Amino acid sequence: MRWTSSELGDVAPAEFIPIAEQARLMEAIGDWVLEQACAQVADWRWSIAPGVTVSVNISPVQFNERLVRHVAACLANTGLQPCALQLEITEGMLMPDDPAVCATMSELVKLGVKLAIADFGTGYASMSYLKRFALHGLKIDRSFVAGLPGDNDCAAIAHAIVKMAHACGMSVTAEGVETEEQASALHAMGCDTLQGYLFGRPGGQCCRLCRQADAGRLLQ
Fold this sequence. Notes:
The protein is an alpha/beta fold. Helices cover about 50% and strands about 15% of the residues.
């Protein structure tokens, strides 16, 4: 997401989302994002990329029983299969023994959507969450990726996250990959997916997926 302001230009999410949350606008924005993402991916799966999936970040202010109803409505309205949608929540949202959080997680799992913990390693989530819920993946926080490959502490933490996630049957995505050296180090650790400016920046040209899909369609 980008806020395009006539005065400020393109404003990054890290700047405007906290303000939107304070102004109580985040639920409306989050609803729109989820609707657009589901509709777009449903169209891609039908037309050019049958196996494509989408991950949508969820704000803490959205994470309640209303979210479950809205996700169910988006899936029904777009015809998107639940397995094609992954919801990303931050580790800090998983407050131990919070009945409301546990109930929302359980209901989302029942819908069949995938759940992933973003920014893993920076919060205080109980490890019991990894066992209690059918989490699909963990995302290594960019602060650990930034130190690779030279920082031994960052390397040890990233490697431990990969090993733990795989032992629990989860995939691992590294956030904020910006150099070939970082990518090589993460690949050697067995990290499943890499995400960051090394592969593409948000906005601008058509994404790699679209280019590959168009090329495949032309070959057919």
